[in-house]
Amino acid sequence: MNILEQFKNVYSNHLIPKGFSLLKSKYPYFIKVTSDEIIQLISVEKKKSDFNPNFECFTIWIGISLITLPMTGYNSKPSTLDNQCWMIPASDFYHRCSLSMDGFEKADMKYSFYYEKENEADMLSALNKSWDELMPFIVDFFSRYITMEDYYSLKGRMRFGFYQDIVILKQKNDEYLSEREKEYPSELQEFVSILENNPLMKLIRERKEKEFKEKYMEYNQWFIDRKKVVRNMTSIWRLPLRMKILIENILRN
Asked: How far is Cα 129 from Cα 117, in angstroms, rounded to an integer?
């Protein structure tokens, strides 16, 4: 039995009782929709062993998306370019959480799990180990962050593009820009300090500082422009219901 089938079996025992559903797709994706706003995804990807041809390995992938956004390519593996808009390896997820949340001293930053080729028992052991070491925190995180407002509170540290969408859909542009204005002076000071402490960067400090300021202004303008657009996008608020119906149909078929 291959790793994808074994992943379905092992993770189904844990995730289905927690409200996840296994999609009937070429690649295994466990999916859960919360508060009619957020899509939570868990999948796996097989990799070649870099150190021993007699071993194979896999990586667990985690996804968070808005129900208003296009669907993930469920017949493709998580690392495809399109799917990387929504999904990241579990180790990357842990790292981003460590920037956003306290209590990460015990987090296991495991990247891949190895098993001997053609050894089903070893494969099962690796899958169970991946669950024990990675998933308890991830499932707990998913259970606590279930609405757009929850993810807005993380201030973009989880995944910036995802946060941009939330700011726009929640019509929080003014609030977000106000917070950025307060944080900007200290961010600029820290950036300049880094340049000054690096002998190689001192020579280009003025140019880099100017670029930093320009980027800040361009970024703010992006949110200002989107605020004007969203006011005329009343139909977008009806998208969650249509997307929920689509997802339910996928799960049934």
From this structure: 17
Segment holding 47, helix H or strand E: strand 38-48
Residue 116, beta-bridge partner list: 55
- Kindly report the pTM of this predicted structure: 0.74
Distance CA 89, CA 138 (A): 12
DSSP state letter for 28: -
Q: Which long-range contacts (CB under 8 A, 24 or more apart) does 171-176 make?
A: 171/227, 171/230, 173/223, 173/224, 173/226, 173/227, 173/230, 174/227, 176/223
Check if the beta carbon of residue 66 is closer than 8 Å to that of residue 169: yes
Mean pLDDT of the chain: 80
Q: Are 130 and 60 in contact (CB under 8 A)?
A: yes
Please give the structure tokens belonging to residue 247: 């997802």
The confidence score (pLDDT) of residue 229 equals: 61
Q: How would you write 199-212 as a 3-class SS string?
A: HHHHCCHHHHHHHH
**Residue 177 and residue 152 in contact, taking contact as beta carbons nearer than 8 Å:** no
